[in-house]
């Protein structure tokens, strides 16, 4: 079985929500999703605004996981928008 790594940009509703979102992500996502704390980065955009870039690894053989992952990330309080930066198959 292989794994997929998906990278997302998470845009907060308010700049003050960044730390709250990062704390939720550091606590982890439910199985089978794996997030390493090194895969969570806060990056400045402009004018004091920042985004969170996150990498998530999950099995490639289970249908519907990508939609479930995106739903979980969008449901985090304070998340305004979620953008997929890329996905790749890893082993």
Descriptive overview:
The chain has one domain: Alpha-Beta Plaits (2-Layer Sandwich). It has a four-stranded antiparallel sheet, covered by helices on one side. The termini are close together. The longest helix has 10 residues. With 91 residues, it is an alpha+beta fold. 11% of the residues are buried. A hairpin with a 2-residue loop joins strand 2 and strand 3.
Give a quick precis of the structure.
By secondary structure, the chain is of the alpha+beta class. Helices cover 22% and strands 44% of the residues.
Helix percent band: 10-25%
Please tally the helical runs, counting DSSP H or I stretches of 4 or more residues: 2
The main β sheet shows up as: 4 strands, antiparallel
Structural class call reads alpha+beta
Distance between the termini: 8 Å
CATH topology-level fold name: Alpha-Beta Plaits
**β content, as a range?**
35-45%
Mean pLDDT: 92
Count the E strands: 4
Provide the CATH top-level class: Alpha Beta
Question: What is the approximate shape?
Answer: elongated
Query: How many domains would you count in the coordinates?
Result: 1
Radius of gyration: 13 Å
Oligomer: single chain
């Amino acid at each position: 079985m292989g794994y997929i790594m998906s990278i997302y940009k998470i845009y907060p509703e308010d700049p003050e929500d960044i730390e709250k979102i990062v704390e939720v992500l550091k606590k982890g996502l439910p199985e089978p999703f794996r997030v390493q704390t090194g895969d969570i980065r806060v990056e400045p955009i402009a004018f004091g605004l920042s985004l969170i870039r996150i990498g998530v690894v999950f099995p490639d053989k289970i249908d519907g996981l990508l939609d479930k992952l995106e739903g979980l990330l969008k449901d985090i309080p304070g998340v305004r928008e979620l953008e997929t930066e890329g996905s790749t198959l890893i082993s």
